[in-house]
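Hi support team,

I submitted a single chain yesterday and got back a structure, but I'm not sure I'm reading the token output correctly. Could someone confirm the output below corresponds to the sequence I sent? I've pasted both exactly as they appear in my results page.

Thanks,
R.
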Amino acid sequence: MEHVLRPLLVIGGTLVLTVLIGWLIDRALCAADRRRPDTRVWALLRRCQLPLQLLLAASAVRIAYAVFDLELRRGDVFRSLLATVAIAAAVWLTIRAAGAVAENQLTEYERRTQDLARVRQFRTQLTMLRRVVTTVLAIVATAVTILLLFPDLRALGASMLASAGVIGIIAGVAAQSMLGNLFAGLQIAFGDSVKIGDTIVVDGEWGTVEELSLAFLTVRAWDDRRLTMPVSYFNSKPYENWSRGGHQITGTVFLHLDHATPVGALREHLREFLLGREDWDGRSWNLVVTDTTPTTIELRAAMSCRNADDAWSLRCAVREELIAWLRDHHPYALPRVATSPAAVLPRQDPADHRDRAEHGERREHGEYREHRDPGDRPQAPARQGPPPHQRHQPYAPHQSHQPAHSNGAARHPGDPGEAAGPGESSGHRP
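Hi R., thanks for writing in. Yes, this is the structure output for that exact sequence:
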């Protein structure tokens, strides 16, 4: 029983003592925070309580294990486990303490300056530095744990250092995308192209930069959706940053109205409406006709605002106010859709239609040469005489029988109503 109770009492007493020490440290931080309300550093350091408890417990148990000469079946494994927990807790405590100090410095910087762009830039750089330091500390702690606490892995570590060049090339090729995002994140953080809190339009989405990591950037859209994009996107593709160069922005509203719209009265009403709005910064405004179509005109109202949020609110309010004012005072100015039936062509006289048809046929055959009044009757074309080789030949009477008229007489080739043959004139032969 002594081999069981003695280790339990030593380890249990050590843990209780470390918990008591941690609680006393936390009370001291609370008292310091109450005495110094002008700074947040003491309140922020209270976040370090959990890693501090782990560090104190692991270190105290390891020390008690050696002081009280405790004997366990797997004492080497137990000591290695305590050392691993102590190293991890120390790294965790360092990261928490550094983050608390950095956030306190950022808070004090916000109090001293009114330039929100510089504050966002400082926050972005601190966030990136914290992530880089966290990654480096995690890698170093892992390497130290492997090399110091596990002697069997030292030979593996030495061989890895010997072949560091080949491994570096392989790792660089395999992790090309990750390394590209890492360097892109550093470039963005210290290049001041995008900062946390900037209002941007990326890939057709309007939102605010909420988080910047080593590999990804998170954008909070206007409807609280989160867009997570690789950091390298912002170094290779265009995007809109509405916060760069200042927060001031000009909001625009387009209206399509009737041509009879009283533009002057509408412009005056817009001016009166803007004077009563707090989200208009008073720098500039205008109302102009930017385009016209056969049915409507396009009006553009432009108003300057302090930031993108005020611009959105003012645009919606101006659009609603102008439409309501036109509806109540000038309803004829609103666009209309033509719903009347199409015009019908006038009825035409059949005789006129027949004359137009005859004129068209004569134009097609090339027989219409001059302009005639609509009342003139079209005249038959003049007949031509016989060809030159038949003009001086003697006349030979036609020997064939002619068809009889309805009265029994034979029709002469030259009679009216009978088409003349080739070479015959329209009159009687001599």
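A quick pointer for reading it: The longest strand covers residues 249-257. Let us know if anything else looks off.

Best,
Support desk
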